[in-house]
Amino acid sequence: MDEILKITVIGAGHGGKAMAADLAARGFHVRLYNRTPVNIDVIAVRGGIELTYEDGHSCFGRLAFATNDIARALDGAHLIMVVIPASGHTDIATTCAPYLRDGQVVVLHPGRTGGALEFRQVLQQTGCRADITIAEAETFLFASRSVGPAEAKIFRHKNSLPVAALPASRTQTVLDYLSEIYPQFISAPNVLYTSLNNMGAVFHPALMLLNAGWIETTQGDFQFYMEGVTPATASILDRLDRERVTVATAMGIKAQSALDWLARAYSAHGDTLYEAMHANPGYKGINAPVSLRHRYLFEDVPYSLVPIAELGRRFGVDVHGIEALIQLACIMHGTDYRHRGRTLSRMGLEGLSIEEIIQMVETDVPRV
């Protein structure tokens, strides 16, 4: 680009603070938006975020500004990085709709399952007519945590990260922007690929539910991916992974297994999922959530597991393992996650054949 790339990061949680700080520390023009002012008050006063990297060195990412004014945050932005739990995607799409302008690129980090599809549906329903490009990343680029009001830590960068636009004919437009800031982003075939390679669906809810007693007893005082992954829990993760891959295969998508994903993303290898997860240095030092009221359940069950189960039932795939986890989460939280989650209707896929879905995600469509 001839002009300075202006980046808006939406969300001041674990991922948003780390991404905003990292980009700002490397000299990019970065605005940080969060709808709750108290979450960014200290950042606004300090003018940025202190960031610690995996090798131990620290730096200060000076932001252009931090704001809870969405109109100001989006004004003139080229690239809009949505780094919030998927449970907030509908609200953010509704909030952004009046202020989006032609040519802007919105990337969900990540979309979980069906994120870009639902985001587009919401924009259409709110009457947004801007010719924007919506995309989703397969997962988040970092393993990161917020460690203070204006501090963040990155434990590990992923080696590569697929991203796809909706429709796929616009993916190169997205990569033209992303390649300026993160070379790790690579092209994915389409948003079905990024959605069905959602490893959070495999890892997060199962480890929360299977370690529920330990989480409540210790308030998360154990290493989630190291001590929480035993041979028994890993065998359940493996079953969930096989169901996810089978759903993808039924839809014509060659999904990566969790073993292959760990090797690509983190260079973590093993003969079994248990071995590979324990060989991943990026997971070391990450404690479990302190409570079962956590996005690994209230986000990943309705916005990762539910849409995969919906697609599995629609196209005749056995998803009993995934269904069992959804049911346990519903009981534990007293919430009907099937009703609240990303249904086929909310993704705009109800009644469509596989061929019609493929055409929708591959070819250009009218502007939202």
Would you kindly provide a written description of the structure presented here, covering whatever features stand out?
The structure is a single chain. By secondary structure, this protein is of the alpha/beta class. The chain has 2 domains: 6-195, 3-Layer(aba) Sandwich (Rossmann fold), CATH 3.40.50; 199-349, N-(1-d-carboxylethyl)-l-norvaline Dehydrogenase, domain 2 (Orthogonal Bundle). Helix content is 42%, strand content 16%. The protein is built from 17 helices and 12 strands. The chain has helices at 14-25, 41-46, 70-74, 89-96, 115-125, 171-178, 191-196, 199-210, 212-218, 231-250, 258-266, 273-278, 295-298, 300-314, 320-333, 337-340, 354-362, and strands at 6-10, 29-33, 48-52, 58-62, 65-67, 79-82, 105-108, 133-137, 142-148, 151-157, 161-166, 185-187. It has an 8-stranded mixed sheet, with helices on both faces. Strand 9 and strand 10 (151-157) form a beta hairpin. The radius of gyration is 19 Å and the shape is globular. The two termini are 25 Å apart. The mean pLDDT is 94.
Share of residues in strands: 15-25%
- The third-level CATH topology of the largest domain is Rossmann fold
Strand order of the largest sheet: 5-2-1-6-7-8-11-12
Q: How would you describe the shape?
A: globular
Report low-confidence residues grouped into runs of 5 or more.
none
**How far apart, in Å, are the first and last alpha carbons?**
25 Å
Give the CATH architecture of the largest domain: 3-Layer(aba) Sandwich
Tell me the Rg in angstroms. Answer: 19 Å
Give the tally of structural domains. Answer: 2
